[in-house]
Structures are given as C-alpha cells and as structure tokens.
Write a structure and sequence with these properties.
Layout: H1 2-29, E1 36-45, E2 57-61, E3 74-82, E4 93-101, E5 109-118, E6 123-132, E7 138-148, E8 154-165, E9 169-180
Antiparallel strand pairs: 1-3, 1-9, 2-3, 3-4, 4-5, 5-6, 6-7, 7-8, 8-9
The structure holds 2-acetamido-2-deoxy-beta-D-glucopyranose (3 copies).
One 2-acetamido-2-deoxy-beta-D-glucopyranose (NAG) binds next to loops.
Length: about 180
C-alpha cells in the first residue's frame, strides 16, 4: 500500500514537472518578434527667449523650489523627427507632447507625446509615454496606441540620448519596436 502511494506520488511529481516545462516553453514561445521596426531621431531645441525662429520647445511651467534638479518644470514640444541624426534633414514626422522633471535629488523626467506622420511613406500617429530614467543609458517607453497606418498598435520605444548640449539642444535616438500591427 505504502509502495503504491509512493509510486503515485512519484508519477504525480513527473506530471507536474512536465506540465511546468510545457509552461516554460510556452513562455519563451510567446516572446514575440516585432511586426514593425522604426529607427528615428528626435531633436529638441529649447526656446531661450530669443531664438523663436529655431526653437521647437518651450518651458511652460517653471520649476519648483523642491531640490536642485528642476522638479516640476514642464516643457511642451513640437519637435522634428528625422531618419538620420542631422537636425536639418527633412523631417519624416513630428513629436508633439511634453516632458516634466520629477526627481528631487537628481535629473529625471516623464514623457508623453505623439509621433505624427504625414508623408507618402506613413500617415497616422503613434502614442508614446513613460518614465525617462535619465540615469540609464537606454530607457524603454511604452507605445500605448496609434492611428492611421499604426491603427491600435502597441510596443516599446527604446530611447538613448544621442547628444546633449546643455539646456539648448538635445537629440534622442528612438528605436521603436511594434508588436501589434493591423
Ligand atoms: C538656427 O539654426 C541654424 C542652424 O543650426 C543656425 O545657423 C542659426 O543661426 C539659428 N538661428 C537662430 C536664430 O538661432
Ligand atoms: C523659475 O524658478 C527659478 C527657481 O525657483 C527662479 O530662479 C526663476 O526666477 C523662475 N523664473 C520665472 C520666469 O519665474
Ligand atoms: C498632411 O499633408 C498634406 C499634403 O502635404 C497636407 O495637405 C495636410 O494639411 C497635412 N496634414 C497635417 C495634419 O499636417
């Protein structure tokens, strides 16, 4: 009797083990391949009060007195987006949205914007938002939706700072992988 119990216990254990490995292999299976991949550059020229002809973003709310890292400062932008890292390359779209600084003891930001495409290649929008953890070299933002050519899309936009020239100009490299395309 005891032997039988031990045997069935062992069999049960085997079943459990194989079930788990099925689950594990399903998990690695589900790691999707992107259905669309875009590599774009984002250029931000912050208005300094004199360069209205060139500036593409402006401080819309001043920083607070909390800490020394611009906590609360809000910047609204309508930035050109290009295929290569040249500011003067013809834009393939625009990034329209805002970021604000949100860390008391270091620089850190939060982004929300829409990539607006209106070219022969692409028409539509991609909506992107998330924490810009500035201490990290590479940051992942969520692609939360889209319209037109990017109807109902979702994915990940990985951003890296390509160049940073003080408060005046910075450029981000955006590596956008979409996992839902219709
Ligand atoms: C605008 O940008 C161009 C190209 O970088 C530069 O040559 C020009 O001096 C800038 N104009 C102003 C007003 O900043
Ligand atoms: C913005 O805030 C900073 C720091 O509190 C202050 O020095 C500056 O005068 C403020 N600027 C404006 C336009 O209120
Ligand atoms: C998109 O481009 C077309 C053709 O150049 C233009 O007529 C239209 O106004 C543009 N739409 C937007 C939202 O920029």
């Amino acid at each position: 009797m005891r032997e039988l119990a031990e045997k069935s216990c062992f069999i049960f254990f085997l079943i459990l083990l194989s079930f788990q490995s099925v689950l594990a292999s399903q998990k690695s299976f589900r790691q999707p391949k992107p259905c669309k991949h875009l590599e774009l550059y984002y250029h931000d020229i912050l208005f300094d009060g004199t360069d209205a002809a060139n500036a593409t973003s402006a401080k819309a709310a001043n920083q607070t007195a909390l800490g020394n890292f611009k906590f609360g400062m809000l910047v609204v932008f309508d930035d050109p987006v290009t295929k290569d890292n040249h500011l003067l390359s013809p834009p393939v779209g625009r990034a329209q949205g805002f970021y604000f600084y949100n860390k008391k003891n270091d620089y850190n930001a939060w982004f929300a914007f829409t990539l607006v495409f209106n070219s022969t290649e692409n028409k539509g929008t991609i909506n992107i938002m998330g924490a810009d953890l500035m201490a990290e070299e590479s940051r992942d933002l969520s692609v939360v939706g889209g319209t037109g050519d990017f109807f109902m899309t979702r994915g990940i936009a990985t951003i890296k700072t390509d160049i940073f020239q003080g408060a005046k100009y910075f450029r981000l490299k955006m590596d956008i992988k979409l996992y839902e395309c219709y």
